[in-house]
Structures are given as C-alpha cells and as structure tokens.
Amino acid sequence: MATRFATGRKNFLRLEMFGSEGSLAFNLERLNELEYYSRSDARAAQGFRTIMVTESVHPYINLWWPPGHIIGWEHTFIHEIGDMLLAIAKGEAATPDFQDGWRCQQVLDAMIRSAIDGRWVEVPEYRGGSMSGQLPKYYTICQKIIAQIKQGKLLPGMRVPSEHEIIAKYHVSNTTARKILQEIENTGWAVRIKGKGTFVRTTNVERAATRILGFTRNMIEAGYTPSTKVLGARILRTGYSAIVNDRFYAMRGPVYAIRRLRFADDIPMMLEERYISLAFCPDIASRNLEGSLYDLYENVYGLHLTEVNQMLSSIALDDPKTMALFRLVAPISAFLVEGVTFCAKEIILEMEKSLYRGDKYRFSVRAT
Fold first, then answer.
1. Rounded to whole angstroms, what are the CA distances from 285 to 147, 219, 277, 304?
2. 36 assigned to some structural domain
3. CB 233 within 8 A of CB 258
4. pLDDT band at 99 (very low <50, low <70, confident <90, very high)
5. Which of 306, 181, 285 is nearest to 234 (CA)?
6. Do 353 and 240 fall into the same domain?
7. Are 110 and 103 in contact (CB under 8 A)?
8. Among 31, 73, 66, residue whose Cα is nearest residue 52
9. Does 184 share its domain with 210?
10. What is the DSSP letter of 55?
11. Are 295 and 352 part of one and the same domain?
C-alpha cells in the first residue's frame, strides 16, 4: 500500500541502490548524508556506514561552506539554476529538461490509471530524441559541427563550413543551412564576419598572475566544468630543485611527484607536474588526486598558501607525445609555468612545472 499519510514521516523519500559488491542509500530527510555498504570491508566491520557529504570533493559543496557545514533544501534550487545557466553559457542542453519532466508525468499518469482500473498500464516506449521521437535536423548538424570545435578539429580562427558546404554535405535547404550557422554563432562557438564567413571564436581562459588561484577554481569561474586525469606518480627520495626567476629553490626529500592532465569540458587545457612535500602531506598518495590540490592542502592538511612565485615563458608545443595528450593535429604555442608555492615564510609546500595551451589561455598581470 502506498500513501502520502505516513504518520511521523515528514519528507521520507528513501532511495536504495544494490549491487553485487555494495549498496547505497539516501534519505531526503537527511539531506547531507549518504549510507554506504561495501563487501570489500573486513567481515567483522561490514555494515552500512554514514558519510557526511560536506567535503569540497563532493558535488557542489566546494561552492559553499567549509567541510562539516551542511547545506539545506533551498541550496538544491540554486544548484538547479546554476546548472541551467552553465548549460546555456556553454551552448549545451540542460539536464534534466522538459522532456525528462514529460517522461516522468507519463509514468505518474500510468500509475494513477493503474490504481483506478486495477490493472497494468503500459508506458509508451521512449526512443530518444525529441517528444516526437526525432531531433530537428538543423540541431543534429549543428551539434556535429560544434563537436568538431570541442575536439580541436576546428581550431580558434578557422572557418566553419559555409552555407554552400553545409547544403552539399548534408542535403539541406538554404534556410536550414543559415539556421545552422546562426545557431552556432548564437551559442557562442563562432562569429560571423560579413563578406568573409563564419569563424571559430577565440575563447581564451584568463589566468591572473597576481592571484593564488588553482585550476579547478579558475575553470569554474570561467564557466567550464573541470576534470583531471592522473598520468603517473612517484616518490623522489632525494628531493627536487629548480631555478625560478633566477633564484635556486630546493625541496628536501621525500617529495611526491605527480603528473596530471587537466581538462575543461573534456578539452585538454594543461599538462602539469607537481612536486609536493611529504613532510606536510604524508599520506597524499592515498587521497583523491583528480580534484583540487589546493583544496586538499587547506581542508585535509590545514595548510594556508601564503605566496606563489612563478616564472612564465613561451615555448612551442611540438613534441608528438605531448601533442597526442592535447589531441592536437598540428603544433601550437604554449606557456611554460615553473613555480614555487609557500605555506609560510620561506617554507616550500610544492613546486610545479606546467604547460598551458597558448590557444586557450591568456595571462594577465596588474601593476599598481
């Protein structure tokens, strides 16, 4: 029996997911908690445990309060609005959308009719696409061209297919071809130059050299979704040293060296090598290293970054292996950033050697 009148239950919407190796459970009355069960735990310790979902590595939490500070019901609506605005800014479809709502209503309607009639009611099969079962052709073609821009096949400054080329390749009318180009321009991926054509917009992420700003926060502020792929890591027992701005800096061993590829909306943006003092972060190898290291330093180890000394130079990104990581088909310019990060006066926490794409970044400096 299902009823809304469950005495004592205010908002008890409980969702449970079971798998062969573990289980998850969530209760809407306990918005900041997640119950987790793992068969990999020792048998004597197996059982559901409660995880407080208030760490910066958890979805959305890094935009709010320090760890341990809960969020409430009203924050979920802010997240929905934020996701929608980010999708609009990126020219992507927001999810969930009206189609998802429509599908939910179909299921709810079938449940009501089933309760009234006392029989099974079939829900119409979902075949993907729009409510009529098929996406508009102009939209499909538009997304294909935008995908070429995202994948780097059409680089900033390159001309996108013209009206005539779209007509010849996709067999559409002049009106549809114009609509495709207009849509690509409206979503911010290209700009039309009268008498010349439509060209991929040059969209560089600005990185202020005067701010202590990590990649994750930089991308979020620029309206992108950051992600990370760890390429390798090792321990340097003898330490690490480098010359930055004509000064020699050295870190005593052991030092944890990690190599990561950083993405913005699945576009490779930066290849970084970070050298982290194990004296301050002894168990960092066991941490999640696909997020912000700055957040780890502050929230896990209680370290405050006091100063970052960096040296910026321009190089050619033409090594075949590095080009492959960045998904490049031709060499481009890049920024080489070598730096030292301090957690107290003359106390080195980490050093870095990173490559930033020259076609995606610009560095700004303010003098006062």
1. 35, 24, 12, 20
2. yes
3. yes
4. confident
5. 285
6. yes
7. no
8. 31
9. no
10. S
11. yes
Look at residues 203, 196, 195, 204 and name the one whose alpha carbon lies nearest to residue 159. 196
Place of tokens 């917009």: 201
Residue with tokens 């202020």: 208
Number of domains in the chain: 3
pLDDT at 133: 46
Same domain? For 212 and 359 the reply is yes
**Please, what is the average pLDDT of the chain?**
86
CATH number at residue 141: 1.10.10.10
Any residues with CB less than 8 A from the CB of 314 and at least 6 apart, and which? 333, 334, 335, 336, 358
> H or E element: which one contains 242?
strand 240-244
Residue 130 has pLDDT above 50, yes or no: no
Residue 123 lies in a domain: no
| pLDDT (0 to 100) of residue 323 | 92
Residue for token pair 């709810």: 108
pTM above 0.85, yes or no: no
CA distance 355 to 320: 14
CATH code: domain of residue 252: 3.40.1410.10
> Are both 147 and 243 inside the same structural domain?
no
- The DSSP string of 83-108 is HHHHHHHHT---SS-HHHHHHHHHHH
- Integer Rg of the chain from CA: 26
HSE value, Cβ hemisphere, 13 Å, CA-based, for 168: 5
pLDDT at 204: 63
Whether 143 and 242 map to the same domain: the answer is no
Torsion of CA 286, 257, 210, 200, to 10 degrees: -90
Place of tokens 């990581």: 325
Find the domain containing 338 and state its range.
205-364
Contact 95, 88 (CB under 8 A): no
Does a structural domain hold residue 114?
A: no
